[in-house]
Amino acid sequence: MGLDRARLPARHELKYYINPAELEALKRRLLAVMRLDAHCRGGRPYNVRSLYFDDAFDSAYFDKVDGVRTRDKYRLRIYNASDAVIFLERKRKMGDLIQKSSLRVTRRLAERLIAGDPRGLQRAETPLLREMYAAMRLGVLRPAALVEYDRLAFVHPAETTRVTFDMRLRAAVTNPDLFSPGVMLRPFDEPLEILEIKFDSCFPAHLRALLDGMTAQRCAISKYVMCRRFDAL
């Protein structure tokens, strides 16, 4: 079925809205002490496109809106608009902690999941595929929103810290096809981007100091929820 990436332990995740001017200033600071992710070739952002699934009751959407502390989201993800690498992921949110299970899948399997056909996955060796089967059979899980953005990512070995700028967030407003998305629009009008910080146990002090003086506003941001503004629930 593909390459199974081990389930990661829970990590902290902090999210902020950041304006373009502060983004540029913080980027210069980060370049002095962190290295760019290997996927940022030539110092350029890479493209991330995710197709999120939700059930017949829109549980993932309303759990987030209602502030449920422990909740799951399932998605298919590709990079740089290519089907060369496709991941099926389950992201579990537990307050400020996140845990992600990820499995590389074929395009054929991805298209089956998009079409709502999980037959045979109940016998898969991989737990994530069995979870997906149960979610699709019991909750009628189906594609709900297509989300895309350009990501510039910085990494540091201390606490496995990862700092990302997710820029030009946009959502499909026509047929949400993972491999050919059609028309996409920004889900909000403000000139803001999204800053995300992930770390194991404690955000290192010398990296935290780089945020001093910034007016970036910490928020419980959900790209999935934001990009469903074009969908009449």
Describe this structure in words.
With 233 residues, this protein is α+β, with helices and mostly antiparallel strands. The protein is 21% helix and 39% strand. The protein contains six helices and twelve strands. The protein has an eight-stranded antiparallel barrel, surrounded by four helices. It is globular. The model has no long low-confidence stretch (mean pLDDT 91).
Structural class: alpha+beta
Strand content: 35-45%
Q: Ranges with pLDDT <50 over ≥5 residues? A: none
Number of helices: 6
Order of strands across the biggest sheet? 2-7-6-5-4-8-9-11
Rg for CA atoms:
18 Å
Overall pLDDT, averaged? 91
Most strands sheet? 8 strands, antiparallel, barrel
Count of beta strands = 12
Distance between the termini: 33 Å
Helix fraction bin: 10-25%
Give the topology string: H per helix, E per strand. Answer: EEHEEHEEEHHEEEEHEH
What would you call the shape?
globular
Topology:
Blueprint: E1 4-5, E2 11-18, H1 20-33, E3 35-36, E4 46-54, H2 59-65, E5 70-79, E6 82-94, E7 97-105, H3 107-114, H4 127-138, E8 142-156, E9 161-172, E10 184-185, E11 193-199, H5 205-208, E12 217-218, H6 223-226
Antiparallel strand pairs: 1-7, 2-7, 2-11, 2-12, 3-8, 4-5, 4-8, 5-6, 6-7, 8-9, 9-10, 9-11
Descriptive key words:
single chain, 233 residues, alpha+beta, eight-stranded antiparallel barrel, 39% strand
In short:
The chain is α+β, with helices and mostly antiparallel strands and 233 residues long. It is built from 6 helices and 12 strands. It has an 8-stranded antiparallel barrel, surrounded by 4 helices.
